[in-house]
Amino acid sequence: MGLKQNLHNLKEKYKGTKMAPAFNAIHTFLYLPNEVTHGGTHIKAADDLKRTMNTVIMALIPILIFGMFNAGYQHYAAIDNSLRLDPLANFFTWDNLWIGYHKSITIGCSFLCSRSFSRIYFCCHKRS
């Protein structure tokens, strides 16, 4: 019995329980669904869309990590201009990653909070 058959058996065994979405996610991530489109629209099934979005998210992770290193490097380079003399030695450091992570999370959270606040404010307070 292969991995695909084991996952299928686990999906059937835990159908309707809390573990069912986990087995379904692993199964659809590793294997194509049985129903695929042969013409017309490119993405039709929900499983195909989930697989596509998983690929997009996995492709964005290295870009996010590189952006965190870059934000930290630019932060320290603005303070001390001598870092620009040897950028390769000073780019991939834990300090750069930590500062970049902190800046990315802070900016992302403040953006989301401001967007949600404006939605709540403008939905609850009608203009006269």
How would you describe the overall organization of this protein?
With 128 residues, the chain is mostly helical. Helix content is 72%, strand content 0%. The protein contains five helices and no strands. It starts with a helix and ends with a helix.
Compile the SSE list and pairings.
Elements: H1 3-13, H2 20-30, H3 46-79, H4 87-91, H5 94-124
Helix pairs in contact: 1-2, 3-5
Instruction: Give the count of helical stretches.
Output: 5
Outline type: elongated
What order do the SSEs take from the amino end to the carboxyl end, as H and E? HHHHH
Radius of gyration: 23 Å
> What level of helicity do the residues show?
over 70%
How far do the termini sit from each other? 68 Å
Show unreliable segments.
none
- Mean pLDDT across all amino acids: 76
- In total, the number of strands is 0
Q: Strand content of the residues, in percent?
A: under 5%
Structural class: mainly alpha
How many domains? The number is 1
Biggest pleated sheet: none
